[in-house]
Design a protein that fits this description.
mainly alpha, about 230 residues
Amino acid sequence: MTPSAIDDLDSHRSGSASAAGGLDRLRHGTPAPSGEPHRHHVGTVGLDQHRRVLAAVRGDAEEIVGALADLRSLRAAIDDAERDLLAAARRRGVSWNRVAAALGLRSRQAAEQRAARLGEQAAATDDRDCQHCVDTAPVAALRAAARSAAARMAADPPWDGTRPRAALVRTGLTAAADAPAGALYSLVKHAVDDLDTVDLDGRPVLLRVAVAELRRAYRAATPGAGTGVHAG
């Protein structure tokens, strides 16, 4: 077995604790540990529910309707597991190209967009253990602007090679979208500073619009503007 194959096997076995735990809970339908964000869907769904959904095809109208409702939980559980695995893969140094191939996607950009979509979906549907739930209006606007700008950058294939710090801007904004308010502001501040070194001429119009909105939201959320955002 080559060193690369050994590393791949180790990556598959190890991953991250959260990814392994999420998949194990998905298989057995065991509860998610308390305090683990964005995991309550996984903790309530197991193979028994999957079997009930499949069996409902031969059931009566009530069973069919119930199974259709259960599909939402099953999809959410799969999305949770996929999001955890994507994060674990990136922490282990797996390239976006390899992730795309594993998911049956055509490009690394498609894989990045899928990861971003899963993150946005979790943020939009999670109603507890969620930093977003306590955001003030300016912080919420800053968070949305960071997420939008990161998504536009990920959708622009040449972006990462535009300037040495372009990729860092994108990854920083991606992290900022789900960070607590203080860390969100700090990450966006670094991104805005780095964007001053990036030539946006020739970039897609929607990307430039997203960057302009990010800068506007950053100025509105700057301490002293009456937002209550602090770096701590």
